[in-house]
Amino acid sequence: MATLNPHPIRINIIGTPVVGQQVEVKVLIGHPMETGFRLADGGNERIPKNIIEKVYIRLNQEVVMQAELGTGIAANPLFSIFVTVPAGGGLISVDWEDDQGVKGRAEKILVSP
Hints:
This protein is 0% helix and 48% strand. The chain is mainly beta and 113 residues long. The chain has one domain: Sandwich (Immunoglobulin-like). The protein has a four-stranded antiparallel β-sheet, with no helix packed on it. Strands 1-2-5 form a three-stranded antiparallel β-sheet, with no helix packed on it. It is elongated and about 55 Å long.
């Protein structure tokens, strides 16, 4: 039986990567991003705060985007960046950590060498 990732990460490359050209990379992180202000169904207790605090997107281990998030970010945050496709191939990696200490990571080959 497969185990479902409670916080999936989707990395999409928009267009065809061509060496030396820019390509759009879209990253969708499945995360509830609870602010700590919403009330549970009964209306008596707050849903505990649970937000992503740090996100890093790397191309071949070099940080190309870094973000520190707060409560103003919606659930399932989406990031879109443009990167230049390197001659030697490329690997896009995404790392995040939330305020509960939970971490997520995903990788996708941008172009093989």
